[in-house]
């Protein structure tokens, strides 16, 4: 297939971008001036078509096919441009699952996301943490057909050699502002969260190790400069977080910005947007408006193709050295929200659609295959404020699966609990990012809707004290409600990911948000005297610190993901080979029909009368009532959400 985008080994010459001219103008420059546009996609997660496979409906908020149209326009605006991807490309949608579990990837095959990206003529990419979810062979087979190089400086093979090239230098001919040709050497280096060795231990143990992101940069950036790089672009599949650097950070982009020699940071992993985004307000060293980290230009282009990240650089040559004299950053969206409705800003790029149409059609057929039925609706609209049937279905299936595997082991008589979290609960995913399944047939797409990640099942052996701490860590999702202050107060901490709000089925407890959180968003103990978990019981009796439990969970949590007490890899007693969603599917197939029910095993302490305790959820929540809690709709909230208050 012929690409609609010409290969840009000699970078595009055209009309100078209006966006570029929007930068503050330089004064007199002694040497040549080059304007270079650096573009980023990140966290695509196999979202190529503007389609939501879970809802089986078109979706104008996602899709590389739409981002591609922005790329085409952005290139036409600039004399010189480069396009990079920041990782997490081969996992994350039912299309990715179809390729991994039904179609397969042999050496020489072309993964649909790679086929789409090849159309766009990327200059380079890096690896994301989810690249490792299906194993190293699948990873190498999937990326083997890429027509662009990949770099990763902090993932090392067991024999000490890099998993990918740590860095490279792109030699590019560019056009300066006088129309003359110049040679520019662009250094590119990539990074992945070092936690991949915990999160995908089954795939990486004994095969891959990682080093700290900043340590890797300090080692390799001088090599890049020695190799002649005029400027250095860091492809950092790691987010932005403040605080003192201790080493090994999952979100290390801000610390990376302090490394001498790095000029531009393309960041991701957190699924946020930068510049902009309230998540980064009040972090020292971060300028949300200007889009800088410690003064260096940076961008985070959302997720699933929602934005194109753009960093416009103005480079001046002083002697033989190019310097960044000016810059401007932007996260350009593929859609707007007008009157609470999504309005597409661009259409799909035909060449990208053509590259994946066959796999898209096959995925639709795959996800529509029936596996059973549900007698009741399954939704997650109230899953952060009340016991929830969608979470309980996962917990019940996990417990069923683990009980069968442990029935002939030394653990068979220990009480079995099951931890599960509401993955689709709005938040950064938007007002439609909720599970909602009507009564009736359940298809494969519904399994992926109920449980969106390709986690495998694990079981851990923990004490009653660790169960309590586990729940305290989960309870950090709530802002502290202040009865003395009164008035309207928002309950949910928007910076706390819903996938870290574990509900543990099998015990009974209450959560009191008027108390301070014992743990911060990253799982660090911040208040040893704080206690939000109340009345924790098992079979009607208080849980004691020395009781021993088996808890069914997933590989991410058991291996240390989220920094939960009792989960550091040492407490694992069962490392199962099967995906959680496959266990859910088997559970449903065996029963033929399920009717998951929230049984009130946990609840919030009744909020004080002096406070209007609010939370937001999706518009369709109005069709349902939560179990064990009374709520009242208050009105519309920003970005298409709806505001509710808890009344009892």
From TrEMBL:
Cofactor: a divalent metal cation
Reaction(s) catalysed (UniProt annotation): a nucleoside 2',3'-cyclic phosphate + H2O = a nucleoside 3'-phosphate + H(+); a ribonucleoside 3'-phosphate + H2O = a ribonucleoside + phosphate
PANTHER family noted in UniProt: 2',3'-CYCLIC-NUCLEOTIDE 2'-PHOSPHODIESTERASE_3'-NUCLEOTIDASE, 5'-NUCLEOTIDASE-RELATED
Organism the protein comes from: Microvirga subterranea
Record-level GO cellular component terms: outer membrane-bounded periplasmic space
Residue span(s) of domain Calcineurin-like phosphoesterase: 36-271
GO molecular function: 2',3'-cyclic-nucleotide 2'-phosphodiesterase activity; 3'-nucleotidase activity; metal ion binding; nucleotide binding
Domain 5'-Nucleotidase C-terminal: 434-565
A Gene Ontology BP annotation from the UniProt entry: nucleotide catabolic process
Cited PROSITE patterns: 5_NUCLEOTIDASE_2, TAT
Name of this chain's protein: 2',3'-cyclic-nucleotide 2'-phosphodiesterase/3'-nucleotidase
Signal peptide: none
Source domain of life: Bacteria
